[in-house]
Every structure is written in C-alpha cells, then in structure tokens.
Amino acid sequence: MAIWNLGSINADMVYAVPHLPGPGETLAATGLERFLGGKGANMSVAAARAGAHVAHIGAVGADGGWAVERLTEYGVDTRFVARLDHATGHAIIAVDDAGENQIILFPGANRQIGEAQLGEALGGASDGDILLIQNETSAQRAAAHLARERGLRVCYAAAPFDAQAVQAVLPYLDLLILNQVEAAQLQEATGSPPEKLGVRDVIVTLGAQGAAHFDSEAGTRRDYPAHRVEAVDTTGAGDTFTGYVLAALDLGLPMPQAIGQAMRAAALMVMRHGTADVIPDLKEVLEARFA
Question: What residues bind K(+), as annotated (predicted)?
C-alpha cells in the first residue's frame, strides 16, 4: 500500500524570539535557522519515517532543488514533484521561549499544481491506497474526486483552516483531522459537530490535552491523553501526528494503535526545534519513555 500526498513544500525560516511580536512591534531575533517545511513536506517525512511508502505530489521553483533532494534523502518518493517557473513556497516562523509560534506563509509554487500532474501521479495508485491533502496547495477537490474514483481512502488535514475549502471536499473524505479551534470553526460554518459531518473518522487534536477520535459509523468518541513533556517548539507537531496516523493505518494498524503511536511522535516533536528535518523515526517513537 502507499500514501499519495498532495502537499506543500516550503523553506521554513525559523526565528528565535523572546516573545511573539505584537501589532506594530519591531523585535530582534536571537537566532535563525532554515528547515525543510510546509505542511505537506512535514507529513510526507513523518509518514515515511513511520514506515510507509509515501509519494509526494507537489511543486517547487528553480530555487527548490535542495528541498526535493532532502525529501528524497528522508525516504519520500519525489518523482511527482514538478519544477515550475514560480518561487518555492516559504514560511517565516517566529518561535518564543515557551515554544509557541507565529507563522507568515507565502504559497509560491504550491498553488500552481494542475490536474494533469494529479492524473499522472495518481495513475500509479492502487485501490486501498491513501490520498492525503491539506489546504496549502491548489487542486484539492479535483484530487479528492479522482482519488475516490480510483478507490483510494481520502484524508484531509484541515489547515490552514478555511471552512469553504473543507466543505468542498467533505463528500469525498474517509478521514478528517483538525485541531480544536478548527473543529469549532467548522461546526459554526456547517452547524454540525465532528461526529455529524458525514465523515467516517474525525480526529480532533487538543494540544496539551491530547486528541479525540469520533467514529461516526459506530457513534463513538474516544479520548487520548497527551504525554507530559517540556515543549520547546510546537511547529510541525500536528503534521507529525497526521503523518504517523496515516502511516500506521496504511500498514494495517487499528485506529487506537495508530493514534497512540502518533501521540508519542508528536510528544517527541515538541521537544525539538525545527520542522521536517527533526521529525522522529519509528524506532525513536517506539523506544521513547515518558513520565
């Protein structure tokens, strides 16, 4: 089986700051690092490090060759990453001493992915594979429609959140992953709580409180507590969680075990500075010990 990820690829410029800047404030950073990032790239790396075969469908500009090379080094299939005449996407990320972050995102080439590229990539997909999409690329609805026609399971990680974007793909989804704020915003937009959205499985991440899984078919909710760790940087933790959940499901693990592994991976991730480059591998996740 395989995971096909229509996902963003960014250069993450991470600035260490004493506190997150307020409106009109000029703030001197105490450090700067460049990482491979983008929600799509993060999720691809996480799923690959969790043991899944991951094919990334995306785009970079002429300045993005290093990002593709790094994805390949991390075990991601990059045959379907296009080189376009647009700047590679990038993010400016401020991280404060408490590990909270603030992000400015420039989409760049991520918003130039066309349906022809999707068709070429998904032409190699098999029944039962997984398609993963987020809201940092173009062609999400077209990808979801094509994947459903080909018998793939479709997962949507609803970030950056846009209610219309989520509603456009809801009819095609098998799994929806969103955080607590996004879940509240979607409920306000649709009038339906997570278990009434018509999606078989909905996972709501709750930050330091863990996560909740809603099985609409069984009509159940199960809560998963977070591991207690000292967070230094929350950037990429949600992406790591998503990649690990999908990798486990793709490898045949039941949902409780998939979420359990993802919770462990996310706990390790918040203890590290950076994004895709520092996502833990499966051996680290399985061997980790928490208080």
Answer: 233, 235, 269, 272, 274
